[in-house]
Amino acid sequence: MRLYSRFFAIATIGTIALLPLLLLPAMVGVLVDDGGLTETQAGWLSAVGALGGAGVSFMMALRMHCIQPRRLAAIMLLLATGLDGISAFIVGPDAAFYGVRILSGLATTAAYVIVIAAFARFEQYERGYGMFVTLQFLVSGIGLYLLPVFSSNMGAKGMYLILAACNAGAFALTAALPSTASAKPQAAENPMSELRFLLSLATLAAILGFGIFEMANNVQFTYVERYGVSIGLVGEEIGFSLLIGSLVGIPGAFAIVLLGDRFGTVVPLGFGIGMGVLGLVFLSLGPSYSGYFIGSCCLGFSWAFCLPFIQSLLAGLDREGSVLAAGSTASMLGAAIGPGLAAAVLGEGNYRAVFAVAIFLFVLSFAAFLVSRTRASAAAKTMVTT
């Protein structure tokens, strides 16, 4: 039972670190309605915040075995607490606000990378990832319901003060993280050996697939709340749809705990990504509440179902955490590019074009996972025969 309590504490740290992404569409709405930003500016703000995090996660991938997880996470979460507090008082479409959000993205990304690498160091790590993603979607669902409903009362200032308080709470839980580096001397002495491993075809395809998958989700996620507004839905209808969509993701995330490796990774990922494509089709069919609701549920289930399988696939390639850290780099790049790509495609409210781009990216991500699994299996067979 102590293992699961530790998993829960680590999952809580990671979930708080991801709040700006988990609450993205509702936060875009708050920034547009109260922060003085346009829809396009809010989309680019999300992109630059995640872009900063991608750089730090790549550097961590090369030195993952040397990092002391507990100490670094504590420093980064304290930094994020201060930066979110500053953000509350300088909200606006200017360079200072953008700069603070980039720095906050660096700090929270570092905490997130530590969390996903920490799970891989435990036995039954797939259950840890399932718990982590389950908590993400529970928190996302509640937040996406509450933010549109109470945004007029809290405003952008209140939103960032709440983020600061959450990061302070995550700091209090850092004792659950491993206190020492994974101690791999050869990696510490020669980080280029890690880079060569990360550039193998099986590893590279899995990392790219993760990035493209996150890009697809963030393309559609950035403006899904605004799309609801554009088709005449009221805040309660939008919030309820996004809430149920996230709650439906909870059994999706928990499925890996029940399935384990019974069906491998490629078959479940094909099913989960197919559900995401189906959700985007429902959103694109026409301006109806039922289509919006069903589409949100399909997308929420898809995202939650696929993430622990993707993370387990990466952990299976390297239990020390370097591939997971590199995967985080790709996912953060995808999260950074996704809102910007959506903003570029949106134009004058062309939401269906945004959804079409997301469908294409979903299909591309599955192709990358298929290549990774095929190459990894072939390499394993070669090792056995030799």
Descriptive overview:
The structure is a single chain. Helix 4 (39-62) crosses helix 6, helix 6 (95-119) runs antiparallel to helix 15 (322-346) and helix 10 (201-222) packs antiparallel against helix 14 (289-317). This protein has 386 residues and is mainly alpha-helical. The protein contains 16 helices and no strands. It has helices at residues 2-17, 19-22, 24-33, 39-62, 69-89, 95-119, 125-171, 185-189, 191-198, 201-222, 224-230, 235-259, 266-285, 289-317, 322-346, 351-385. Helices cover 84% and strands 0% of the residues. The model is unreliable at 185-189 (pLDDT under 50).
Question: Summary?
Answer:
The chain is an all-alpha fold. It has 16 helices and no strands.
Percent helix, as a range, is over 70%
What's the overall average pLDDT, rounded?
A: 84
Could you state the order of secondary-structure elements as H and E? HHHHHHHHHHHHHHHH
Terminal-residue CA separation: 41 Å
Radius of gyration based on Cα positions: 20 Å
What does the overall shape look like? globular
Present the secondary structure layout.
Elements: H1 2-17, H2 19-22, H3 24-33, H4 39-62, H5 69-89, H6 95-119, H7 125-171, H8 185-189, H9 191-198, H10 201-222, H11 224-230, H12 235-259, H13 266-285, H14 289-317, H15 322-346, H16 351-385
Tag the structure with descriptive keywords.
386 residues, globular, mainly alpha, single chain
